[in-house]
Amino acid sequence: MTRNLLFAAILCGSALLHAQDSTEKELELLETPEQIENYLELKNSRDNKLITFNEEKHKTTLAKELFGLSKGGIKTIKTDYDKTVYKVVEKTQTTYYRAAYIYLDGTKYSLTDLNTLRTKIIKEYKSGAPFDFLAQRHSMDENANRGGDLGWFTQGDMYPDFENEIINGNHYINEIFMLDVPDKNWYYVVLKTHQPKDISEIKVLKIVEAID
Predict the structure, then answer these.
(1) Is the pLDDT at 10 greater than 80, yes or no?
(2) pTM given for the model
(3) Which residues pair with 90 in a beta bridge?
(4) Which of 34, 119, 198, 209 makes a 20 to 30 Å CA pair with 190?
(5) Which tens digits make up the pLDDT trace of 26-36?
(6) For position 164, which CATH number holds?
(7) How many CB atoms lie within 10 A of CB 83?
(8) How far is the C-alpha of 177 from the C-alpha of 150, rounded, in Å?
(9) Can you name the residues that pair with 186 across neighbouring β-strands?
(10) For residue 154, with 0-12 CB atoms within 10 Å meaning exposed, 13-18 middle and 19 or more buried, which class applies?
(11) 86 and 138 housed in the same domain
């Protein structure tokens, strides 16, 4: 608590006295989430924010440069009009999972009809029909437009019963199987498309200031 109060006092004093310390120097003082939150309140602007970068999703030159920094590393980009300062405040690795699915609404079919349809879908897949084609043809939610692909997800992103079977069900790559969530009337044909993958993520504080 004392440390946070001292930090806030330093920043406020700096602002009131128009000290020469740069934004980069101020960011070097930030260590805890509370300090970051206080700093964002002090630098109140919609341009100033905490951003999460995912190494799998973010492939820009900026993202690659930020991933190359160590925790606490700072990068500054200047234009004729403003200066943007980025500080890496956290670096982690998170395990991600990936699968594709065909969803069938249990309120629109009897269980017998559901299983007959799912058996037919699995047979067609094993006979060579692409899974994305089958998903576009049969799946009853918007993910059909993506060929059933879930994209990368982490534990806790999905409904527990659905997620647990994909993560802990001991299914091999390209295995196709049925998955039921009867309390929700959700019935699936699932294809395990990828092995679990550890993906790096960073949390970056972004501060933008005008150049006079």
Answers:
(1) no
(2) 0.70
(3) 203
(4) 198
(5) 999 998 999 99
(6) 3.10.50.40
(7) 16
(8) 16
(9) 105, 181
(10) middle
(11) no
Give Cα separations from 119 to 28, 53, 114 (angstroms). Answer: 60, 40, 9
- Give the span between the Cα atoms of 23 and 197, in whole angstroms: 36
Q: How far apart are CA 119 and CA 122, in angstroms?
A: 5
Q: How far apart are CA 176 and CA 185, in angstroms?
A: 20
Domain that residue 53 falls in: 2-93+204-210
**Residue 198 falls inside a structural domain:** no
Q: For residue 199, what are the CA distances in angstroms to 47, 90, 92, 153?
A: 27, 14, 8, 11
Ramachandran category for residue 141: left, alpha or beta (phi over 0 → left; psi -120 to 50 → alpha): beta
Same domain, 82 and 110: no
Shared domain check, 137 and 64: no
For 137, phi then psi, to 5°, come to -80, -35
**pLDDT per residue over 77-96, tens digit each?**
999 989 999 999 999 999 99
